[in-house]
Amino acid sequence: MAADTKGEFIRCPRCGQKTRTKVLPSTVLIEFPLFCPKCKRELVVDFRRGTLTSKASVT
């Protein structure tokens, strides 16, 4: 996922839909609990240099 300077919403690594979390290219998230409103799951993700990596499912 490549984000522009204005920011972009993170997409769920499971279903591909937009989440409510917005990131900039300089944003770094480590072990961030990301909730997807569509699939109703919480995933632990890392976001570095515009790349999203899913670690585990919490629920």
Helix count, DSSP H or I runs of 4 or more residues: 0
Secondary-structure element pattern, one letter each = EEEEE
Task: State the helical fraction.
Answer: under 10%
Largest β sheet strand count, sense and barrel closure: 3 strands, antiparallel
Radius of gyration: 11 Å
Residues in β-strands, percent: over 45%
Number of domains: 1
Compute the separation of the termini in Å.
24 Å
Q: State mean pLDDT (0 to 100 scale).
A: 85
Give the beta-strand count.
5
Uncertain regions spanning at least 5 consecutive residues: none
> Which strand order spans the largest sheet, edge to edge or round the barrel?
3-4-5
The general outline is globular
Please state the structural category: mainly beta
What would you say this structure looks like, in words?
With 59 residues, the protein is an all-beta fold. It has strands spanning 8-11, 18-23, 29-36, 41-48, 51-57. It is globular. The mean pLDDT is 85.
